[in-house]
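Prompt: For my understanding, could you write out one protein's sequence and backbone structure tokens?
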Amino acid sequence: MKTFILILILFTQPIFSKTPTQTLTDFDKLTQASNVEGSWKLFTKFDNHPKEVTEYLRKRVQRSIKLASQGWRFEILEEKVIGNSAVVIINSVIDSTNDHESEKGVKAKFDPQIAYMTKQNGEWKVFPPAHGIKYLKELLSKDTTKEFNELEKWFEARKTELIKKNNPGKKMEEKSQ
């Protein structure tokens, strides 16, 4: 009986685990609520890393909370998963509660961006943009790095398609000039 229960748990765990999109949505809600610790729990962690990595990651969480407090929001367009890595395509929007009268309810320019996600201990975590600390991606395994490279190529192709789909008249305007 114990073996049966163990097998049942192993096979049903993926059913109950969250998707990258759900995790990013939870992260967004926590940042909007200025919940630093809750947001921090959803961030990628690195074992045996320099102290400056943790400091950088904490600053990224704080920056996300600051942006959320200033009205920055995003809509999730789609996700793609390869192994233990994923990207979620997002597009910035201006919150309808923004104090600037002329911007209320107005969407920002359609410009899809990429949110990286990694799976750690069976849970999806937000992987911060690595541009602020050059060796952050070097802390990842070779497999994860390879997966991110594939996902970035996929994103670039999808971004082009999404922009064409969401700006259908732009090509026509450019040709007529």
